[in-house]
Amino acid sequence: DIQMTQSPSSLSASVGDRVTIICRTSQTINNYLNWYQQKPGKAPKLLIYAASSLQSGVPSRFSGSGSGTDFTLTINSLQPEDFATFYCQQTYSTPWTFGQGTRVDIK
Amino acid sequence: EVLLVETGGGLIQPGGSLRLSCAASGFSVSNYYMSWVRQGPGKGLEWVSVSYSADITSNADSVKGRFSISRDNSKNTVFLQMNSLRADDTAVYYCARGAITGSDAFDVWGQGTMVTVSS
Q: Between vectors from CA A90 to CA A22 and to CA B55, what angle results, nearest 5°?
């Protein structure tokens, strides 16, 4: 199974900050890396697919980068509605696995 | 509008069985991979099962031999048959659609249905 290591597990930030979340995989996954945002009591929402492609309707302040085993989600100018938990996921091979999540809350 | 609606959750005793349904609207499930993902109380996301087609499926090791995914394209519905349920199967179960483009990401999710396994 492909192991996902996401960091940090939580962070505190202010509105307007730039936030970076890292996801590392235990083997190369050819950019089959996706990012989701989840708010309490709600289903996850797809933000980024294939490492760097922005899902339709997602604000451009969200961006993804990386390749091989190291990937990054960046949120430029954090907005009040962005406070949530973020998960990375690999869909390179089953079992498809998620990172443990990064909770972003208000400083 | 593209929508997934899960039903069938509830309270079940250990060792029992439950069948979850995921009704799709706004698209045809026959054209997509369909998955189930679960989230235990206060925990992260765990992929459970995928239906690539009516005949091709894959399951996580944690549910292999106990859970079975299926689909009825005529009813535009996906199912998760859960047998031999255990306390650690307690979770919100989400149905999700695999996107056609890109990396098979899950681009549409249902609202989830809660399954509680307890005596």
A: 170
